[in-house]
Design brief:
By secondary structure, this protein is mostly helical. The chain has 4 helices and 2 strands, in the order H-H-H-E-E-H. The protein has helices at about 1-25, 50-65, 70-85, 170-175, and strands at about 155-160, 160-165. The longest helix has 22 residues, at about 1-25. A hairpin with a 2-residue loop joins strand 1 (about 155-160) and strand 2. The radius of gyration is 43 Å and the shape is flat.
Length: about 180
């Protein structure tokens, strides 16, 4: 019987090793304790795959998705309208344009400026038939800053030219270096 148990344990070890080798490389992020906030394994919180297994799954899910037909029709109509508006006849080469009239030169770049000689000085336009009066010069004077009373006053009594405090806390506050003395 012991020989049978020995063979059985060897067979178990062999099967367990084969099963382990079939699984391939395990990744840290394929475990449930490293799931994102939605509970998905293998991807981070923004949906970026962190493991090859998750990347393949995401790729396969995307491959099976197609736009609904009504959205395809809307996009195709918009594309045809844009091509007609810009005079594009070949969709593969959008730079080959057959103009109906000579092209008008336009420069919309933000860095282009007209030459100085073409600039005319701008006139001030006043509505109502009068010129506004010149603004008067104003001198601002700040009001004096009022002194604030101390935030906290230690409760003490003067007896025989010595200070007596109500308790130890009051004495500690009074003797603190940041405390401003009232006397």
């Amino acid at each position: 019987m012991s020989e049978f148990n020995k063979e059985l344990s060897e067979l178990y070890k062999k099967v367990a090793t084969d099963q382990k080798n079939k699984k391939g490389i395990t990744h840290k992020f394929d475990r449930p304790e490293h799931a994102n906030f939605r509970g998905k394994i293998g991807v981070n919180d923004t949906g970026i795959p962190l493991t090859p297994k998750a990347a393949i799954k995401k790729r396969n899910n995307r491959a099976g998705y197609h736009y609904p037909q009504h959205l395809k029709n809307i996009n195709e109509r918009r594309r045809k309208d844009a091509m007609a508006r810009h005079g594009i006849t070949d969709a593969n080469d959008p730079f080959k344009v057959e103009p109906s009239q000579p092209a008008e030169r336009k420069n919309f770049s933000s860095t282009w400026r007209p030459e100085i000689e073409y600039k005319k000085p701008r006139r001030k336009i006043f509505y109502g038939g009068y010129e506004p009066p010149e603004p008067e010069q104003v001198i601002y004077v700040a009001p004096p800053v009022a002194r604030k009373a101390p935030v906290y006053k230690a409760k003490m009594i003067r007896k025989n030219n010595t200070l007596e405090f109500r308790n130890k806390l009051e004495e500690a506050i009074y003797n603190h270096p940041n405390y401003k003395k009232q006397f």
